[in-house]
Amino acid sequence: MQPIINANQKINYRLDIDDSSEWISVTPCEMARNAFFYVQEAGHFYCGPDYFTERERLDSFLIKCTLSGSGRIEYRGKTYDVGRGDVFFISCEEYQHYRTANESWEHIWVHINGAGCMNYFRQFYENNGSCVVRLPRFEEVSEPINKIMNLYRIGGVYADIIASKLISDIFAEIMIAATGVNDNAARLPRPIQLAVDLIERDYQENVTLEYLAGKVSLNRQYFQKLFKKYTKMSPYMFLTTIRVNRAKELLRFSDMSIEEIAAEVGLNSAGHFIQIFKKMTDTTPNAYRKMWNAKR
Questions:
Q1: What's the pLDDT tens digit per position in 20-68?
Q2: Which of 104, 122, 213, 236 has CB 3.0 to 4.6 Å from 69, enough for a Cys bridge?
Q3: Chain-centroid distance, C-alpha 192
Q4: Number of other CB atoms surrounding residue 124 within 10 Å
């Protein structure tokens, strides 16, 4: 098959795919387009050596999981080889060029869009540092895509709703892989677990970086780097989050004044407390209290 070129859509591709390949186009309902994650296309391709796609300026996000063989993707000025278990997640507005790397490339894929997709993509890329991530079990992505394809083979009024849920499942799996949060990472190294325990116990006190690093017998800079690696937050942000969460409880379930709550959670003034609370929650302590008291 000769390359197909479409100048308006900025696309150039060659579909060197086996007859057993499948490609499903989807027309989501208006509600899905306005409120959900939604599917635009999905497929399972068995590609030959001449398969490629070169594209940009498509309003879509693509998630592609390699099942066997190998592929190669050029994205944001870098080239990545992908093999079994590798998943790439890209915004198709940006230039991309992906192709079979050797003789064959089997992959399953889904084009998606909807409210929140860009936020997921930005967080994924920021945490992962590239568009490609390796999954311990690629079935965590390939199975939801298979379910999406089954949904639209059958159709039905609830297909778009279920598909949105399956896209959320895919996002969860690739974000877990991108951030390194898995069963092994959940078991924090002993110095970091000790620091977490200290913050949770002593959050009302003047908990400083120097204090924590000293307690776990680590260099300050190294401790801060290690803490962020395993918790995805700086020690200061971890402490602040605990303080704000405790303040929320007191605002909802006590009659303490703002000044008393600030002191109770370890902050030195009501003004400082209000500033931090608003930055973390986009509302003031008083507004938060009124909102939740009205919903009791």
A1: 999 999 999 999 999 999 999 999 999 999 999 999 999 999 999 999 9
A2: 104
A3: 24
A4: 23
pLDDT tens digits for range 230-279: 888 899 999 999 999 999 999 998 999 999 999 999 998 999 999 999 99
Angle at which helices 117-128 and 159-179 pack, to 10 degrees? 20
Asked whether the predicted pLDDT for residue 3 surpasses 50, the reply is no
- C-alpha–C-alpha distance, residues 31 and 250, integer Å: 39
C-alpha 166/C-alpha 172 separation (Å) is: 10
Residues in Cβ contact with 182 at an 8 Å cutoff, skipping those fewer than 6 apart: 136, 176
| Residue 143 C-alpha from the chain's centroid | 18
pLDDT tens digits, residue range 100-115?
Answer: 999 999 999 999 999 8
Angle separating helix axes 190-202 and 235-253, nearest 10 degrees: 30
CB 99, CB 71: distance < 8 Å: yes
Q: What are phi and psi of 215, to 5 degrees?
A: -65, -30
Query: Cα(260)–Cα(285) distance, rounded to whole angstroms?
Result: 12
DSSP string, 213-241: HHHTT--HHHHHHHHHHHHSS-HHHHHHH
- In a 3-state reduction of DSSP, which class is residue 265? coil
CA separation for the pair 187, 214 (Å, rounded): 22
Query: How many Cβ atoms from other residues are within 10 Å of residue 77's Cβ?
Result: 6
Q: Which tokens in the block code for residue 53?
A: 């796609």
Task: Write the CB contacts of 121 (distance below 8 Å, at least 6 apart in sequence).
Answer: 61, 89, 90, 91
CA dist 46 and 295 (Å) reads: 55
